Amino acid sequence: MSHLQIINYPHPTLRHVSKPLKKVDKLVRSWIQQMFELMYEAKGIGLAANQVDLPFQMFVINPQGDRATGSEMVFINPVIKSSKGSSRAEEGCLSIPSVYGEVSRPAQIHVTGFDHLGNPIDLVADGLLARVIQHEYDHLQGTLFIDRMDPNDRRTLADRLYEFELELQTFQSSGKLADNRAIKERIDALEQQYC
Questions:
Q1: CA angle at residue 124 from 117 to 88, to 5 degrees?
Q2: DSSP string for 153-165
């Protein structure tokens, strides 16, 4: 479980409500570094733990998507305390490649939590930063951006989402991916160890 990869919709871990982390050890720090690497490789700007099949309240972001020029942030056990305003923009997701849709979200948020060194985070964010944080925070609740789309807009994605569903079934039936029972057992074991 030390080597991570991004999982695709509709993998069950994407719908799992993540649990708070109680400790950050060497392995967790290794996972955080891998999450940044995977995010950059996939040309993303955020990645939540359950997108790499980990059941923890943790995500990494860099709104610039570039390690050299951007600002890397790690959020552990985040809480969105308040929000205001409204903003609509197109979103995508590394776990649903090549699928995009318009999503309305609060324009400004107040978020708290901790970074991977145990430092407290108390941040008011707006613009793209607020959107990225909310998108990744949703992941921790088992919510995907497609769930927040207008139902009529989401219907236009039905064929593409069905292709992802068939792909998952194929991987599981061929043994390339564990079945749902085995996935749940692994998640339970991780939660017992870290949550």
A1: 120
A2: HHHTTHHHHHHHH
For residue 176, count CB atoms less than 10 angstroms from its CB and return exposed for 0-12, middle for 13-18, buried for 19 or more: exposed
User: pLDDT 10s per residue in the chain (195 long)?
Assistant: 569 999 999 999 999 999 999 999 999 999 999 999 999 999 999 999 999 999 999 999 999 999 988 899 999 999 999 999 999 999 999 999 999 999 999 999 999 999 999 999 999 999 999 999 999 999 999 999 999 999 999 999 999 999 999 999 999 999 999 999 999 999 999 999 999
* DSSP-based three-state secondary structure for 5: coil
Question: How buried is 16 (Cβ within 10 angstroms: 0-12 exposed, 13-18 middle, 19+ buried)?
Answer: buried
**Which residue ranges make up each domain of the chain?**
12-194
Q: Which sequence positions are flagged as catalytic?
A: 136
Q: pTM of whole model > 0.90?
A: yes
C-alpha R_g of the chain: 16
Q: Tell me which CATH code domain 12-194 carries.
A: 3.90.45.10
